[in-house]
Specification:
The complex is a heterodimer of chains A (about 220) and B (about 350).
Chain A: H1 5-39, H2 49-64, H3 67-73, H4 75-82, H5 88-112, H6 116-124, H7 129-168, H8 170-180, H9 185-214
Chain B: E1 2-11, E2 18-28, E3 33-37, H1 44-51, E4 59-64, E5 67-68, H2 74-81, E6 84-88, H3 99-109, H4 114-127, H5 143-155, E7 161-165, H6 173-190, E8 193-198, H7 201-207, E9 210-215, E10 218-224, H8 225-230, H9 235-245, H10 251-259, E11 265-271, H11 279-287, E12 290-301, E13 304-314, H12 317-329, E14 333-336
Parallel strand pairs in B: 3-8, 3-9, 6-7, 7-8
Antiparallel strand pairs in B: 1-2, 1-4, 4-5, 9-10, 11-13, 11-14, 12-13
Helix pairs in contact in B: 3-4, 3-5, 4-5, 5-6, 11-12
The structure holds adenosine-5'-triphosphate (ATP) and magnesium ion.
Magnesium ion binds near residues 44, 45 and 166 of chain B.
């Protein structure tokens, strides 16, 4: 094996760091986007065709670019924001561009699952749009939102490994530079194993949490 | 008081336009239980949703206690909605919240303090008979219990009007009865005006004071439940009345009657105190006729007894005519069954 256990642990931390930071920023962008995509659609709370069509279009554009291309395509943006285009911090930018719109779609889906009747009851009670979003829509969708976030996080783990390929650090970087390019099978399998365990743990936690919220 | 003034509702535009309501004029007096009945697609939901502007009328006005809702700003509409409770066919409770929090929601939205809120919710749950269910979640309740939660929630802000859109349509007959009893209690104790939308004539007979029959977005007829039940003018209304009075003769008997040359079959409708008199035996003796009762029933509508008999008169023709005249003179309705197709 060409790498030390310390290197592996460092890489693991880098991955966790990349995933958590990009998750936070992606949610900050994706949540309001997802909410807007729901409430501005036809017949909804604050119907507004131009806002809906614009946001919908933007999300679609980002969702249609493969991550590996996005990674390279937005290098100027990354450089502008972080000052450099390589390293762990730099990969967070493309990760957010990738996961933000994805999370917006996931949140949109979860919120659309909320029974229309509940929103109607809220309106009949004289609730303001803000109250409807925060007191009705989000709480009713919470269990489904947790599952959506789990999917997004797992997606980010995968994407962060890919980002590693272009010098972003983390487990993916390790697997490619040592496992693939230098034929170090052991490193390859160890990183792979860690990634699998991570994803399993994330998914189980998400499932348990979501179930707990749904109480069934 | 709720007033509809020329309320028209059109969904969609151009060739896709659906006229759900066409110029509705109706008045629901304060303290009344008013029922609107109609078949599916008649426009009932559209009508009731115009009252709290969940649907905005395309034309016309809706007044609550004399105030024109269609002229209000969004903010004013929201504050007026707090004076209009609403319950739904599918309850529309928050599944993520306990019974307590569901009922507390309107209070929370209005900025009530914790203490006041707990007190009011306890009061409401007591009123609907669910004080022991405060910490349960909606999916742990039966349909009837869920509707009780819906009712408690609708009453939380002390509304003066309660709208019920098919509130009992998802419930079994026994549970329906208990919910209707509760609605009557709300009307009596809190003096809340209730507007009920339903396709079940039983609901109308059970608790309504007045009824309007809706079809294709038009009111066919309206009036006191007693009048509409005992003398339905429109064919659709007759259908609805028949759906629960169940007073039509079997086809085989009708055929027998039609085949007789001199058939004398009449429907006799008694109302009020006349139900107490031994009419038939008197007629039989007085005019020397044999009377064969083909159908008979007696019910109570709005607390007034209402009897319905279908009787075959056998005897001399002019005696029968005299007998019919004598019955009519007692202001009892008599109708020829064969011509009043029954
Ligand atoms: N949002 C809508 N968009 C388009 N058409 C609608 C809409 N809501 C109702 N309609 C149409 O308006 C007409 C009246 O509908 P409405 O829901 O008021 O009837 P209803 O009497 O409540 O029927 P039901 O007993 O089935 O609930 C129907 O033809 C229906 O298809
Ligand atoms: Mg309806």
């Amino acid at each position: 094996m060409l790498v030390s256990s310390e290197q592996i642990i460092d890489a693991l931390w880098e991955t966790i760091w990349m995933v958590s930071f990009s998750l936070v920023f992606s949610v900050i962008i994706g949540l309001p986007l997802g909410i807007l995509l729901v409430i501005t659609r036809k017949g909804h709370l604050l119907e507004n065709a131009s806002i809906f069509n614009t946001l919908n279009g933007i999300v679609n554009i980002f969702r249609s670019v493969p991550f590996i291309i996005l990674l390279v395509a937005i290098v100027p943006v990354t450089r502008f924001i972080v000052g450099t285009s390589i390293g762990t911090s730099a990969t967070i930018v493309p990760l957010v561009f990738y996961a933000g719109p994805y999370i917006a779609r996931l949140i949109e889906n979860s919120l659309l699952e909320v029974d229309k009747g509940v929103i109607e009851a809220a309106e009949a009670m004289g609730a303001t749009p803000g109250q409807i979003i925060f007191r009705f829509l989000l709480p009713e969708a919470l269990s489904s939102l947790v599952l959506a976030m789990t999917i997004a996080t797992v997606g980010l783990v995968g994407a962060s490994a890919m980002a590693g390929a272009v010098g972003g650090g983390g487990l993916g970087d390790l697997a490619i530079t040592y496992g693939y390019q230098r034929f170090d099978t052991a490193t390859m399998y160890i990183t792979l194993g860690i990634l699998i365990i991570m994803v399993q743990a994330l998914q189980s936690t998400g499932n348990i949490l979501s179930k707990k919220i749904r109480r069934s | 008081m709720i007033q509809f003034e020329g309320v028209t509702k059109t969904y969609g535009e151009g060739s896709n336009a659906v006229n759900a309501l066409s110029g509705i004029d109706l008045t629901v007096e304060t303290g009344e239980i008013f029922g609107v009945i109609g078949f599916s697609g008649a426009g009932k939901s559209s009508l009731i949703r115009c009252v709290n502007l969940l649907e905005r009328p395309t034309k016309g006005k809706v007044f609550i206690h004399g105030k024109d809702l269609t002229s209000l700003s969004k903010r004013e509409v929201r504050s007026t909605r707090k004076d209009i409770g609403m319950i739904f066919q599918h309850f529309n409770l928050l599944n993520s919240k306990t019974v307590f929090h569901n009922v507390a929601m309107p209070l929370l939205l209005s900025g009530f303090g914790k203490k006041e809120m707990s007190k009011r919710v306890a009061e409401l749950l007591d009123f609907v008979g669910l004080h022991d269910k405060a910490d349960q979640y909606p999916d742990q309740l039966s349909g009837g219990q869920k509707q009780r939660v819906g009712i408690a929630r609708a009453l939380a802000t002390n509304p003066s009007v309660l709208l019920c859109d098919e509130a009992t349509s998802a419930l079994d007959p026994e549970t329906t009865q208990s919910i209707l009893d509760l609605l009557r209690k709300i009307n009596k104790e809190y003096k809340i005006t209730i507007l009920i939308i339903t396709h079940e004539m039983g609901v109308i007979r059970e608790i309504c004071d007045k009824v309007a029959v809706l079809e294709n977005g038009v009111v066919l007829e309206h009036g006191s439940v007693f009048d509409v039940f005992t003398d339905p003018k429109h064919q659709t209304t007759q259908k609805f009345v028949r759906s629960i009075m169940n007073d039509h003769l079997p086809e085989s008997i009708l055929n027998d009657i039609r085949n007789k040359k001199n058939n004398h079959v009449y429907r006799i409708q008694f109302t009020g105190s006349s139900t107490g008199h031994p009419l038939l035996s008197k007629i039989s003796r007085e005019f020397d006729l044999d009377l064969n009762v083909l159908y008979g029933n007696i019910t109570e509508i709005q607390g007034i007894p209402y009897g319905n008999l279908i009787v075959e008169f056998m005897g001399e023709r002019n005696q029968i005519q005299k007998a019919l005249l004598s019955i009519q003179q007692q202001s009892i309705t008599v109708k020829d069954v064969i011509h009043h197709a029954s």
